[in-house]
Amino acid sequence: MSKYIVFFFVGFVILASLLYYGFNRWTESREKVDLWTLVPESAALVIETNNHEALVEHLRETELWENFSVLPFAQRFEENFASIDSVSPGSERLSRFLNEKNILTSIHVVEQAEVGFVYYVPVTSVGEHRFLRTLTENITKSELFEESTRDYGGMLLTDVTNTRLGSGFTFFTYRNNIVLSPSPVLVEEIVRRINRTQSASIIENYRNTNYLNQPEVYANVFVNYRVMPEFLGLFLDDEVMPEVRYLSSLCENAMLQLKLERDKVFLNGFSVPETLKGSLHQVMQPQKPQPFGVKAYLPGRTAMLLHFGLEEVERMRLPQQQNGAAYAATVDSLAGSFSLEAAMAYLETNSINAEPEKVAFVHLADPDVTESLLTNLSRQVTAATKQKASTEQYGNYIIRLLPVPELPARVLGRAFEGFEQSYVVLVDDYLVFSESVATLRALLDDISEENVWSKSAVQKTFLEETLQEANFSLYLNTVNAWYILNRYAEDEERDNLLQNAALIRRFSQVSLQFSKVEEGQYYTSLVIRRPDRSNSSAGQDVFAAEQVLEFDTRLASRPYPIQNPVDRSREVAVQDSANVLINITADGRRGWADSLGTSIRGGIQQITYGQENKLRHLFATANRIHAIDNQGQELENFPFNLGDTLNIQHLAVFDYENDKNYRLLVDDDMGNLYMYDMRGAPLPGWQPRRMDYRLAAEPQHLRVGGRDVILVVLENGYIYALNRQGDTYPGFPINLNAPVTAGAVANIGADLRRTEIKAVTRYGSVVTFNLQGRVLQREQLPRPSKRALFSLVQESNSGKSFVIARQEQGQVTVFDQDLNELFAKRYVTSASKIVQYFHFGGDNSIFAVTESGPQKTYLYDSRGSLVGNRTFESTQPVTIYFNEASNNYTLYKVFRRELKQVDFSLPD
Question: What is the pTM of this model?
Fold first, then answer.
């Protein structure tokens, strides 16, 4: 009997255990799982949505979806989705099943090489279970798919391969949820996480945060800043990754809400500071956010800006090593004179091979104290290095050279590295650093001409939508940063960048800001914005408006670009066959007129001159130099009569010290140079300074390391570098061994050795030399035949960038300054063409090619596409202006007795 009792007891225990196990598994399957607890800590981003269709619809409205959908991983997803949808049961398609669910998508770095995705989808009803079961059965039966299962960590994983596409995915179910990913490695990582029962949710800091309950919010976005450098490292070159890692160390993670508007993507929320030792947050120790005052000094060509708003800017300094320098104490005192703001600006480049210029700004508590410290530091560094102090007067500013390696980093921290030496200048309450004196001069010119962020209508509108006070801000202008993005993108990612160029240029304004709040977190705002184009001709014809102005006589010159002396609006001036110079205002009316009696040689230059400090017009005729005011009246002492036998070719205007003490230099058809001051007095050494041959272009003035260099390019291929007195610098002239038809382009460095000049010969040799007279490089462009001839074409706006045009038997081929072919076009005649290049930032460029025979002008965009599939009647070079606010262009061209003004736009 006792045996039976033992038998029944053992059976009861086994049955109870089975019942308990079954009940427990049933309970577990009924128990809802927080999907966030499944997400691995390796996720860089996690996106939570609850209305898939609404999100996609708004992405389409912003035009983001169209560009996103062409990315390789998105295309693979769409193709697989369509394949699975094709075998979905009945009318209940996959999109209907997924819509209005709280779905998570986590984004990871897989095997340090590619982006990986995981999708977490809840199954909430019996009908949905039935749908999935049938869908799985249909996949098994379909010839499109191959399916296999395997056990991993107690979970049944299913691997599905699309036989037609060669791609696949892995999934498993867990407590009424499906976890699916194209990467089996990520799926296995999630299984291991489930088996570690103590794993905390990655959103532990945001348990009570759910922006999806708010109106017009389309997603919760979790950002893991600790993984973000690894993620960005897939797209960026190793050279910039140390800075990316340092800036990413401001915060540990964030939870942001996603809002979408037609012209804006907006994410805002809160970030948790990074507490690890040495992090940017620990270095900054921010308290009160600060306003963005430096905008009044940032040039419009800024590509990227890092801005720090701190009550104590000195905190950003890392612990200083004792280097024993005699001036270390003064450097420390200099850092202590800073307050409230520090910023690092990266300026636009014109080539993928060019390293961006950097300018550092810092706000000063007392500029007088800082100026005294700079004087002491300059004296101490000079004594320590046994070098002569270098200062330069530029207008009302004094530029100093401080040859202290990494001076901005010593006083402002790691984010300001990369200065071998520093030129500094005080501008109001700010101290400005640059590695190049030429960069500072150009910056001071931008400030003087109000070409700064605070004066730009487009930039002002953008800044109004960003945080007005912040501790750290990153601003990016993707148009200005186009070549920088290409330079620092991984080689394999550069093609994706080019494929999405239209989207990147369209949504060109980006800001990421962090502002500390009382709770110890950072209020975080990311704005990706398309500039307001309310006045643009989007949706209309490319050529929206035309205005024609008729004249009594034939027009004999191009439309010369000028600015109105009063309001600086953009105008033109034309000369007719009676040699009358006529001003045309911005609204298309005739302004002043000046009867010259002969034709203008070269172009019209403008200077700020006189007691009223207004723009004046300077130009030359055959043997005279003219200067007129805004009424067309000659200024005092003008015109200069240089002799009846003179035949002037060009007029160059120099302002050595930027103090309005102008020098006027002309050259004649014999290669003689004559220089005068504004009173008409001839200057010693220039009466004349004889050259061996006629000039190929007007002379250029370069200011290098406190020296003035006048660069003279002759048509026979000889290049001279002259000083103020007309003496030749050592190492010159340089013989390019071939004729030249255009000027040269200079990249000004810290001294003569590091200043590089590029010139292009008639036969396609691109020669790079420095101002010590040393040829650094010779490169030969493809020359299909002896009839192929080359010329360097500088941009018509500032002349800082250039292209190279090759003409051969009616074909024009254009190369960029990296010597890559941009496009080639064939024309009716074999006669030489007039090639012009207009550059307005990034790859926003217009090319104009004019045929004198057929009297036609062709306009091309940066990709070589004919603008509007239209040509214009013209025999002269054209003038093109760009309106940043409306994203429109204005073309001025002349033909016979009419001047035509044409407004046009380029399709996005």
Answer: 0.84
